[in-house]
Amino acid sequence: MNIGYACLTVGLPEANFRSCTLKNVNDSTLLTLIKHNLNSLDTIIEYNIQNNIKLFRITSDLIPFGSSIVNNIPWWDVFSSEFDSIREKIKNSGMRVSMHPGQYTVLNSPRQDVVKRAVEDLNYHNKVLDSLGVDIESKIILHIGGVYNNKEKATRNFIDNFQMLDEGVKQRIVLENDDKSFNIGDVLTIGLALNIPVVYDNLHNRVLPSDLSKDDHYWISLCRETWKKEDGVQKIHYSQQDAKKRPGAHSSTIAIADFSAFVQKIDLNMDVMLEVKDKNLSAIKCLNYLKEDRRIHNLELEWSKYKYTVLEHSQRHYNTIRELLKNKDEYPVVKFYSLLEQALEMEPTSGSTENAALHVWGYFKSTATDIEKTKFAQHLEAYRQGRCSIKSSKSFLRKLAQKYEEDYLLNSYYFYLTN
Questions:
Q1: In the predicted structure, residue 419 carries a pLDDT above the cut 80
Q2: Any residues with CB less than 8 A from the CB of 338 and at least 6 apart, and which?
Q3: CA–CA dist 302, 335 (Å, integer)
Q4: Closest to 272 (Cα-Cα) out of 281, 263, 280
Q5: Which of 9, 40, 70, 250 has the fewest CB atoms in 10 Å of its CB?
Q6: pTM of the full predicted structure?
Q7: What's the farthest any 2 CA atoms get from each other in the chain?
């Protein structure tokens, strides 16, 4: 089973994507932004390779205004060397990439101008994947669209308008059930009619079920029949409900116990795209759960990244996890991540926040200059008095980590996971 995540990363420097407003669009700006975004994508692909992440969804925002007439740059030619470099990394690592147009790409709209823009946007997504030299196992995921007060007609519109697409685009399209209009039963019917694969989304099915008597395994099995050999391994989307938000809202992290229960009921020969707010962090968590190499070292490496964030939230959980990892003969992956999840759900106190900052300061107190010692004391005192948040202290500590090349801290999540 391959585990992947979508578009963005947490805790990875130099991996952000940039855009601009329509009024600021010009060739110079677009060239700068595209260059920056391709560099960011390259950084993410490198990160995925280092962490053995074989599944990744590329952001639709890679090329700003990529499907708009305001972008007349032949970016696939101008940046051919950048695409070639990324292509080689994807190919050599065996990574499978995909793209997922946004909510405004609606192929079944009754408005022809909307359909026209949808076709153009799908052409853009296909051009990105073609520029990366990936085969048709790299898919474009698409929702059916709206009902427009007549689901039967909306379904016919989608099937009819699908025929307008170029053959290259058609070969990449896979359909996904949504949580508002078209349930998994509806999408399977359309997918079978068009002979194209269907991606099952478990949370969408929970919010908009097709048949409450059928479980995830049933729908995954039916969807598998729509995947042909040339489409690659079957792919599904997996997410969990955020208990504090509207139905269908993704959780901040993948709860490892629930993920464990889910995968034990399904066939492991598939690709699973996680849709979750902490992105790559949950992907690594799930990969560690699935690893055949069940050495405690995997969890110790994770602990090195989370430890000061956990301390910031809960001294008790910090101590419990340290004790848990002392037994080098076991691999308590579910217990370990469950404790992490519990800790990060807790509201930090002023005392726990200061305690974590002082632990991090310990890396510098013997090497920092007198001026730096004074500045840190001032930041901390301002926090104690309520004149600022802990962010100013953490920002200062991060600068020190960069100056003194404390990679252990820079590779941790302390500076990136905010309260």
A1: no
A2: 255, 256, 257
A3: 13
A4: 263
A5: 70
A6: 0.94
A7: 74
Indicate the residue type of 369.
T
d(CA 252, CA 260): 17
Res. 417: pLDDT tops 90: no
Q: What is the DSSP string of 363-382?
A: TTTTTS-HHHHHHHHHHHHH
The secondary structure of residue 60, as a DSSP letter, is: T
The phi and psi torsions of 6 (rounded to 5 degrees) equal -110, 120
Which pair of structure tokens corresponds to residue 388? Answer: 């600022």
Average pLDDT over the chain, rounded to an integer:
96
Does 278 have pLDDT greater than 90? Answer: yes
Distance, CA of 15 to CA of 38 (rounded, Å): 10
Question: If you average pLDDT over residues 374-393, what whole number do you get?
Answer: 94
DSSP state, residue 348:
P
Q: Which two tokens stand for residue 24?
A: 């600021």
CB 98 within 8 A of CB 62: no
Please give the domain boundaries of the chain with CATH numbers for all domains: 2-290 (3.20.20.150), 296-410 (no CATH)
- The number of C-alpha atoms within 13 Å of 276 and in the hemisphere containing its C-beta is 29
Residue-wise pLDDT tens digits, 60-97: 999 999 999 999 999 999 999 999 999 999 999 999 99
Counting residues of the chain whose pLDDT is more than 70, the rounded percentage is: 100
- Rounded to whole angstroms, the Cα distance separating 90 from 15 reads 17
